Amino acid sequence: MKPLEAAKAFMAALQAKEPEKAASVCADDVVIELPGGENELRGKDGARQLMRMAPPFVRLVREEHVDGGTVVLRGLTRAPGQFANYTTWTFETEGGLITRVTFHWRPAN
To answer: Is the entire prediction scored with pTM above 0.85?
Structure first.
């Protein structure tokens, strides 16, 4: 799987709340860094946990950038009726699998 395909599959799994689909595009030792940089989820179980704990947001990707095995997706994350954030997702990949995920929010309103 190409890096952009893996990142998009992960985001689709997040939107659909499909833990197994997310885990399938991640390496066994994937690291998911939560906003703030102090907490991490690790391994395929960590990817599954993120899918289960993520609130129901609407995520719109408006910009894609690929540099080798690194993919950056930028867009808007909205919790209808609550808030909107500009979000930057960074996926590091190797051998067609995601090895590291980071994401950062910046208020949009």
So the answer is: yes
